[in-house]
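SEVERITY: medium
COMPONENT: batch folding queue
REPORTER: lab tech (J.R.)

DESCRIPTION
The queue accepted two submissions in a row. Attaching both inputs and their returned structure tokens so the on-call engineer can compare them side by side.

ATTACHMENT 1
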Amino acid sequence: MEFISKTPIDGRGYRGNEIKEWLQNWKGENVESFIIIDDDNDMKPFGSRLIQTSWMKGIQEKHIKKAIKMLGEKVEWKAL
């Protein structure tokens, strides 16, 4: 797997704010869709894009199916 970037970590509030900052500063190709896979739920304002896992069980098949479906949906993230 190749990583092309990572979100900033500022610890000042919701993780969603760090994701928003990343989206606003991204200089690569347009982001047409995205998902957040995490075992935490502090993703405001992107809670609708969250696939919440369990720290005990990790990513399960149901999460993968949901991720595939969600990635097929275009999202206007600036409106979130």
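ATTACHMENT 2
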Amino acid sequence: MAKTSVVIPCWIIDDVQLKLTQMCVESVRETSDAELILVDNGSKLGSDYLRDEADVYIRFPKNRGYVQAINSGFLVASNQYLVAGNNDFCMSSGWEEAQIEVLDNVKDAGIACLHVEGSHKHGGFIKEPGTPGGWWMIERGTLLKIGLLDGRFFNVFADYDYVWRMEDTTGLYVISTHKVTVRHHGEASLSR
């Protein structure tokens, strides 16, 4: 039985983005039974693919940005653990369990992140300053205390704002685990 809902905004405007999205979706399906919520942000390509692959499909007629896409997915998500993802990540086995372990067992964890390939690796659990990055998990109860991401942001800086709000309202922090390493294809969506 799924414990996690994964929300992935998709703004697919070329074949590269479509391929990255397909790799991301495939990796999530292969490594987890999470509910997959795909938010189509006015894609020019791949809408049929997204609709077919999603457990829940949301389509905006034009790009409303990362923040609106994540918020809309969180509002319809049905599970206890919620992931804000990017469509240019490739997930590895154990990612879901590793993030849940952080939220369930690290006292001051509000958001759980994973080690991203190529970044400096530490042992154990690490308190991270600032941004949670492009694949973060939060427990529904914590989200209800903080609220949704601030809709005044389109994309950039919304995660910094969210972390500051979380720390101020709950005293919780972003905690990363390095038990699982995932691959990020480096802001493939943002560069477009």
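NOTES FROM REPORTER
The helical segments are 15-31, 47-53, 65-76, 95-105, 140-146, 158-170.
No errors were logged for either attachment.
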